[in-house]
Structure prediction request, 74 residues.
Amino acid sequence: MPRLAVYALVVCVLAVAAAVVAFVQGRWIGVVWILLAAVASNLAWYYHRKAKADRTAVSGTGPTTGPTTRSATE
Prediction:
């Protein structure tokens, strides 16, 4: 797993913990922590998928994306 994805996942977990603590204390600031957790989880997912796609592109395996084009001489 790439380093940025791990960092984003850690931020997500900490934000969820902060939200739980805030809601237990009766503070509405927990909503902000939930929003931060949502952004961090999206970043973690993005960096994880990007690294996976990069590995696939480097190894040359996997499905190709987009239409194939034919040369003019065919």
